[in-house]
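Hey forum,

I'm writing up a methods section and want to include a predicted complex as supplementary material. The small molecule is NAP. I've pasted the protein sequence and the SMILES. Can someone with a working setup run it? I'll credit the forum in the acknowledgements.
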Amino acid sequence: MAIALVTGASRGIGKATALELAREGYTVAVNYHHNIKAATDVIHQIVEEGGKAFAVRADISDEAQVLAMFDSLDREGEPLTALVNNAGILFEQSSIENLSAERINRVLATNVTGYFLCCREAVKRMSFKHGGKGGAIVNVSSAASRLGAPGEYVDYAASKGAVDSLTTGLSLEVAAQGIRVNCVRPGLIYTEIHASGGEPGRVDRLKSVLPMQRGGQPEEVAQAIVWLLSEKASYVTGSFIELAGGK
Ligand SMILES: NC(=O)c1ccc[n+]([C@@H]2O[C@H](COP(=O)([O-])OP(=O)(O)OC[C@H]3O[C@@H](n4cnc5c(N)ncnc54)[C@H](OP(=O)(O)O)[C@@H]3O)[C@@H](O)[C@H]2O)c1
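Reply by user p_vandermeer:
Happy to help. Structure tokens for the complex are below, copy them as they are.
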């Protein structure tokens, strides 16, 4: 058995990914920030389906909490072979005139620094040079990195641009260390993140402009993540999968 850590696995895309990874036989570390009830519900669902999972609380933007989270994984007695960097935030839709330094830094601290810290700790455990057996990382970026999210959250879009560069650079850096690093770029997916932007119904407002004319489900993103982590994708690294209904 091996551990897959999914950050932000209490809800949305992370939850769907955690459920699917448990079905694939991983012991899933369900990371969450505030919502312990939602994280516990995910654990219960996995256990009810015959899988194995445990919850691990950590704010991924806080280095000490990330270190403590990985320490707790080390005590589980199974190797960490998969990381899904998924936890992400955005704030109220706004044009640039109202973006404060505090907001921009909070977005970058979670969506960029948090991804870096989790990658760093995973590489220390997976890479051949540190005695690991290899592994795979999937970063959850966004179509916003290509489209820019004008008038809504350019700060968020820019953070996802950094996730794309992290994916490319790290994939090259650790390719010979037995670690594959890939990325998914979801578009409009039905989750609670849109409520954080002040518009819970955003997917339904915008879906008609998509070539496929519908929003996506978290499970459709999860399937791509699980494939990228699997041996079926054994020759895939530094790759990006668009899950955006054609836009
Ligand atoms: N939904 C979309 O349309 C869409 C499109 C493109 C990309 N994405 C990306 O997909 C990822 C998942 O988004 P989602 O829509 O599933 O979001 P969501 O429903 O809002 O869920 C966010 C998850 O992240 C966790 N989280 C937030 N801040 C955290 C932190 N500092 N440390 C640890 N966990 C934290 C939350 O934990 P708590 O429950 O404890 O708060 C929750 O589990 C994000 O990276 C997002 O940018 C989403």
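Some notes you might quote in the supplement: The longest strand covers residues 179-186. Residues 101-126 form the longest helix (26 residues).
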